[in-house]
C-alpha cells in the first residue's frame, strides 16, 4: 500500500499533462502580449513619418488651392505648375518641422488652426516664408 501512495501524484502537484497545457497557455498569452505591444508601437508615427505625411499632403493639395495659379503667375512660375509643388512644400515645411520635437509635432497635429499658426510663427511669418519659397524656386526651375 505504501507503493500505491508514492506512485499517485499529490493534490498540490498537477499531473505532467496539465503542466504542459499550462505552459502552452502561458506561451500563447506571452506571444499575444508581444504582438499587441508591437502593433500598438506601430500606431504612433515617428517624426520622419509625420514629416513625410505632411509633405505628401502639401504636394498633393497645393495645386488645388484657389490662389495657387495666381501666386505662380505673380512669381513667373505659371508654366511650371507641375514642378513647383514639391520644392515649394519642402521649403515651407522641412525647416519648420526639423525645428520641432516629436512631442511638439504630436501637439501640432491635435491643435486648433489658430494654435497651429502661432506655433509656425504667426500669419506674417508664414506669408514671408511663402514668398521666400516661391522666390527661391524660380531660379531652380
- How much helical structure, as a percent, in the residues? over 70%
Percent strand equals under 5%
Please give the count of helices: 8
Please identify the structural class as seen in this structure.
mainly alpha
Kindly state the number of beta strands. Answer: 0
Total domains: 2
How would you briefly describe this protein structure?
The protein is mainly α and 141 residues long. The chain has helices spanning 2-7, 16-43, 47-61, 68-74, 85-98, 102-110, 113-119, 123-140.
Tell me what you see in this structure.
It is a single chain. This protein is an all-alpha fold and 141 residues long. The protein folds into two domains: 2-43; 47-140, no CATH class. 74% of the residues lie in helices and 0% in strands. It is built from eight helices and no strands. Helix 3 (47-61) runs antiparallel to helix 5 and helix 5 (85-98) crosses helix 8. The longest helix has 28 residues, at 16-43. The radius of gyration is 30 Å and the shape is elongated. The mean pLDDT is 82.
Strand and helix map with partners:
Elements: H1 2-7, H2 16-43, H3 47-61, H4 68-74, H5 85-98, H6 102-110, H7 113-119, H8 123-140
Helix pairs in contact: 3-5, 5-8
Record keyword descriptors for this entry.
8 helices; 2 domains; 141 residues; mainly alpha
